[in-house]
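Transcriptional regulator, LysR family
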Amino acid sequence: MDLRHLRYYVAVAEERHFGRAAERLHMAQPPLSQAIRRLETELGVELLHRTTRRVDLTEAGRAYLERARAILAEVDEAGHLARQVAAGVVGRLAIGCVGSATYSLLPALSRHLSARLPGVDFSFRGEMLAPDQADALRAGTIDVALLRPPVAEPSLVAHLLRRDRLVVALPSEHALAGRRQVRAADLAGTDLIVHSSARRSVMYEVVLRLLHDAGVEPRIRHEVGETSTLVTLVAGGLGAAVVPEPVTALSLPGVVYRPLVRPATTVELVVAHRADRAEPHLVRAVEGIREVVRA
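Tokens:
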């Protein structure tokens, strides 16, 4: 069925007059009258009683008017939704974050994205290790990831957000806590708490390479999956940890943070998504994430 005929019929039925309906539709009266005749012929029913002065609806016409209005409203709503989707202002997105981004970016990120894209339903998954995020991107259980490189898989694309300095989290009573800064070599003989090796943590590899280059044999006491657990164990006096500087947002009693020097090392944070994803709302969300980091 031609939707124009539905609109023509609704206009005539509401105006009860072909002339006024034609003016409303910005068209000549004869083509309008012919279109309604074709509609009645197609349906096999009389929708209108016509006189020289006015038009009245038949019982069938009244029933048809109600449904025609509903159909046109749905069509208009579908068009509005399609335009919103094309503009990237509606949709759903799940965003994963490594531990340090969870604490340093997630509060500002959720506020900024909600204000920038109020029609997009955002969900966030914090404390995700980088390999788990890459797996989740491939599986489609998250749409965007804030993670530590490398991101070497061709199916994913990544954009650098920032470089974070490394610091040392120490129990407040630790012998190194009184120093203004800590060298990697100073960690020789210190119990360490690190992210999980079994779960392929990027930070695990970074810390072990850092200590190896400094000639330090690591004394690992605990491996954990979440940054919050790592800092909690430091607060409990169970060891020290090398972490990205944004983790200092986790300010717990019993923990002090000291800059790591010699070498003064940084780790990258990137925003990543699947290479085959280019929906407007995803692109706008990635732009919003980059805005928050630049602010």
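The domain at 91-160+268-294 is CATH 3.40.190.10 (D-Maltodextrin-Binding Protein; domain 2).
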